[in-house]
Amino acid sequence: MKLWKNGVFHTMDHPTATYHSMATSAGKIIGFDEELLNMTFDEEIDLKGFHVYPGFVDAHLHLLGYGQMLSRISLKGKTKKEILKTLEIQFKGTLLYAEQYTECGITKNDLNAISTSVPIYLRHNDYHSLTVNDVVLSMLDVSSESGILTEELAQQAIDLFPKFSSSELIMFLKNALSHLYQYGVTGGHSDDLYYFNGFNDTVKVFEMVLKSMPFRTHLLMHHRTLHDYEDSHKPWLDQSNYLQLGAVKLFYDGTISSMTALMYHPYQGTSDHGLRVESPEHFISLIRYARSLELPVAVHVIGDLGLDELITIIKAYPPKEGVKDRLIHTPYMRKETLNLLKGMPLSIDIQPQFLSSDLPWAFSRFSKIPELCFPWQSLMDAGIVLSGSSDAPVEIPNPLLGMHAAIFRRSSHDEKVYFPEESLKRFDAVKLYTTTSQIQSLKHDRGLLKQGYIADFSVTRLDLFSMDESAFFEDQIEMTVIDEQIVYRRLHKS
Length: 494
Ligand SMILES: [Zn+2]
Fold this sequence. Notes:
Layout: E1 2-5, E2 8-10, E3 18-19, E4 22-25, E5 28-32, E6 43-46, E7 51-54, E8 56-61, H1 63-70, E9 73-74, H2 80-90, E10 96-101, H3 108-112, E11 120-124, E12 129-132, H4 134-140, E13 148-150, H5 151-159, H6 166-182, E14 185-190, H7 198-212, E15 216-222, H8 226-232, E16 237-238, E17 243-251, H9 280-292, E18 297-301, H10 304-316, E19 325-329, E20 332-333, H11 335-341, E21 346-350, H12 352-358, H13 361-365, E22 372-373, H14 376-381, E23 385-388, H15 399-408, H16 426-434, E24 457-460, E25 477-482, E26 485-489
Parallel strand pairs: 1-6, 2-7, 8-14, 9-10, 10-11, 14-15, 15-17, 17-18, 18-19, 19-21, 21-23
Antiparallel strand pairs: 1-4, 2-3, 4-5, 7-24, 11-12, 12-13, 16-17, 20-22, 24-25, 25-26
Helix pairs in contact: 1-6, 6-7, 12-15, 15-16
Bound molecules: zinc ion.
């Protein structure tokens, strides 16, 4: 039995509920304060007045994609000139793959100037587009003036790659998890099973790595992996203490930056409203397939029109009793959509960091600004469960940055606050990443500091409920604990 003492334990049951000591045993919370008076402990850990919250959980990210991004050339924040310079330096005569490119006018001609014999890929920061050179275009047998490929074609270009070795995937995952530990993250809901080595090999990689690196992992199952899931005869949800298989991942539309999110009003200067990734008939057949296996769906949707269409479809094909679907993203909607969503058996995985990253430039893509933009308080008022996430590698999977965006709604570009009436209270913002991000695990012992709950917790230097705004950008994490084991501890210089 372990005693964790001299901390401020925020139970997340109520904004002011705190304790000063907590006991854990066999991975579970045993009790607090007075309940511990006559107990004896094998180990005592002094938390030195730090603040303790239920373990941070990221409700939507790509663990392998994040680990892969960490191992590749990043173009984040670079100008066109800097990018071309970087590519020139990094080009070693073999395939070149760079990530986190923000569209700034690079075309296939710029990339052809680097090589006309080996493939060059720039992966856009929304992960829905690529800019490639002529080598890739001719491998795909498509023509493009700009070299920009979106959605299905972008995926086909990525699929030209040979499979990854298991040891590469293990390296990606280990690297991702060790970064997440440093952000205080103890669990995540990840969409990885389609993009690498297919369902079976990818699940094996997770099983292997999680033996030595605990992390509460919930894997969405991309619709193209469903036959493999069926053939595997694996149960739905729990595979082990650390691994679950979750809802069926589908895409309804694309993104704003690729101008593929399905919008009521056309994109600025065009008659283009975006697109449906699947035809309506095919999308319905995919939902029906998921339902035939009694599975919920987790649907990517960004446009306001896309969201309304999706709601109509889901209402016609609801999930079975006791499970909830999930909508991923939903930044833009009409006011009336709030009424449509009320009472539906679903939760929404939001990415507060998208507000700080995407505004105001996203507005410049619209011919008309949608009625509601990132309407988190309105969604909560409508009784809809919101879970916090980063969509890493799109955003940095640091929950404090997400909480900051949910509370302050400040653009990182112009420092302006957008729609302050939609700001969340601190308690609610922290809940997004602790309590409600556990809802889709369907476990009743996660997301609070409470007797009988799992001993997963994140320890911060300052109090998230009262620290200064600027402190959210500082490294606050002192310790990350999963299943009662300390997986990360800050080294203090003595
Ligand atoms: Zn995603």
